[in-house]
Amino acid sequence: MQKLMGTAVYGGIGRGKIKIFHRDEVVISRAKVVDTLRELRKFAYARNEVAEELKQLYEQAVAEVGEDEAQIFQIHQMILDDSQYVSSMESLILKDHYNAEYSVVKTVKMFSKMMEEMSSESQYISERIADIRDVSARLLRHLQNRDEKVFKLDEMSIVCADDFLPSETIRLDKSKVAAICTSYGSANSHTAILARTRGIPCIIGIGEELNEELENLDCIVDSYSGIMYIQPDNETTKLLDHKEAVEGRKRELLTRLRGRKNITRDGREIEVLANICDLSDIENAKENDCGGIGLLRSEYLYTGKTDFPDEEVQFYNYRRVLTEMHGKPVVIRTMDIGADAGLDYFGFENEKNPAIGFRSIRVCLARPQIFKTQLRALLRASVYGDLRILFPMIIDTAEVDRIKELLNEVKAELIQENIKFKEKVPIGVLIETPAAVMLSDLLAQQVDFFAIGTNDLEQYANAIYRHNPHFEKISPDDHICVLRMIKTVCDNAHAHNIKVYICGELGAETAYTEVFLDLHVDGLSVTPSNILPIRKTIRSLNLSDRRQVRQNIQKHLRC
Ligand code: PEP
Ligand code: MG
C-alpha cells in the first residue's frame, strides 16, 4: 500500500481505479504571414466557435452546479471579448504579420507577465492567469482544427491530473468519477469549487508523486483527511468503510438541520456562525450551513508575505467572502499581529512578551497608514453584503474613539474619490481583555456589537499564556472566571441593546451551550466542524425547565 497526501477540498470517500488525464501536447510554430486579412478571418472564426462553446458550457454548468458556479464561463466569455486581449492578438497579426496561433500564445505570455507584476496576491493572479490560458487553449484548438479532448471513463475512476481547467471538470462524466486528485492547484480554484458543488471527493496539491506510474492501480481516496491510499490493504479498507458510515450519519444530520432555525424546544433562538481563517474555509462553513461568518481572522493576508497586502488584494478577499455568503452577516476582524508573527516587514522590535506587547489594534492606531488601507478595503467591500467590522485587543474607550475618527477620515476620502461604500457598517469590539470586560458598560455605548474572544480572555484573566504547554493542566477546568465575565458582558450589552457573540473556542463546547443560552448570548461563532454538534444541542434543550437550568447555572457560575 502507498499513501499520498494533499489538501482536501471536498470531504468524501471515493473508490476506483486511478486514471491519469493528459492534455494533448500542442506544438505552436511562429510564422510570418503575408495574407494578414485571411489570418484575421481565421482568428475571428475561432473566436465565434469558442463563444458558442462557452455558451454551451455555461448552460451545462447552470444545470449541474447552479448559476453562481457557472459564472466562470461568463468570465471566460468576458475574457474572450476583452478589447485589450483581442486587440493584442489582432495587432500581432496585422502589424507584426504573425500567424494567429503564435499571436495567441504571445498574448497569453504578455498578459500573464503583466498581471504577475501588477499584484502581490499570487493565488488570485494565478487563478486569473489560468482562466486566460483556458480561453486561449480553446482558441488554439479551433485555429488548429483539433477536436476537444474528451476524457473517456468506462469504470469508477479516481481522476488525476496536474490540474484541471474548469471546462475539463465540467465535461467529466460524473457517474464514473469517484474522486478528483491533482498534483497542483488551489483550494479556491474554480475546479475545486466545481468539484465541491458537484459533491465529488477532491484532493489537490499532492505533488509530483501523482504520476502515470499509478495508472490503473486500485485506490481509495479519503478526502476528509486528504489522503490517497493506493492498493489499500484490508485493514485500511475496513477503517475507511467505517469512516464513511460515520461521516454519512453526519451528512444525514446536516440534511435534517439544513435551513432550520437554531431554536430550543421552548423557543429561544440563537445564531450559529462560522470562524474562518482564510478564503479556503468558506466552502466548509457553507457546507455546514452556517448562519454567516462570525469571525474572519484577517491575519492570513499578512502572514507568509514579504510586504503589506495592498488595498486591491484586501478588497478582493473581503468582497469574495461577502459575495459567497449571499447577504448573511460577515464579521471581519482587523489584523491582530504582533512581534511573535515573525514578519520582518512590520519592523517589530524583539519583545519578551509579544502576547501582551505591541500588537493588534495598538499597531493599527500607532501606524494609521497600515490600518487605513485595511479600513478602505473593508468599506469598499461593504456594498457586496452584510459586513461588520470587529476590532481586537481593546482595553480603553479612547481606542474606540480613535478608531471612529480614522473610519471617518477614510469615509471622507472615499466620498471625495467617488467610491461607493455602505454608510452604516456595524462596528464591534472583541472583548478579550479583562479591561474590556470591566469597561463593557461604556464600550456598549460606543459600538454595535460585542464578540467575546474567550481564547485570549482566558489567558489574560487567569494569567496563563495560551500556548504554555501546561495550559490545560493549570487552568481551572470549569472556566468559572470567564463564565462570570461573560455574564457581566451580556448584562452590560443588553442594557444598551447591543448583541453579544462568543467567538472563542469555549463557544463550541456543548457542555456550556445551555449556560450561554441562559445568559442570553445572542450568537456563537465556532469552527465549521463544530457547527452541527452545537445546532443539535441547541435544538435538544428546553430552558423552560427552570429548576434544571438553575442548577446548571449555579454549578457553572458557582452562584
Ligand atoms: C479569541 O481570542 O478568543 C479569539 C477569537 O481570537 P484569536 O483566537 O484569534 O486570538
Ligand atoms: Mg484573540
A few lines on this structure:
The protein has 559 residues and is of the alpha/beta class.
Characterization of the model:
The protein is an alpha/beta fold and 559 residues long. It has three domains: 2-23 and 150-234, Phosphohistidine domain (Glucose Oxidase, domain 1, 3-Layer(bba) Sandwich), CATH 3.50.30; 36-143, Enzyme I, Chain A, domain 2 (Orthogonal Bundle), CATH 1.10.274.10; 265-557, TIM Barrel (Alpha-Beta Barrel), CATH 3.20.20. It is 47% helix and 14% strand. It has 21 helices and 16 strands. It has helices spanning 36-65, 67-81, 83-94, 100-118, 122-143, 166-171, 190-197, 234-257, 282-287, 311-324, 361-366, 368-381, 397-416, 434-438, 440-443, 454-462, 471-474, 480-495, 513-518, 528-540, 546-557, and strands at 2-5, 7-10, 13-20, 157-161, 177-182, 202-204, 218-222, 227-230, 271-276, 293-297, 329-333, 386-391, 427-431, 449-452, 499-502, 523-526. The strands form two sheets. It has an eight-stranded mixed sheet. Strand 15, helix 19 (513-518) and strand 16 (523-526) form a beta-alpha-beta unit. Helix 1 packs across helix 5, helix 2 (67-81) crosses helix 5 and helix 3 (83-94) crosses helix 4. The longest helix has 30 residues, at 36-65. The chain is globular, with a radius of gyration of 27 Å. The mean pLDDT is 91. Magnesium ion binds at residues 392, 432, 453, 455-456. The site of phosphoenolpyruvate (PEP) has 10 residues, from strand 10 and helix 16.
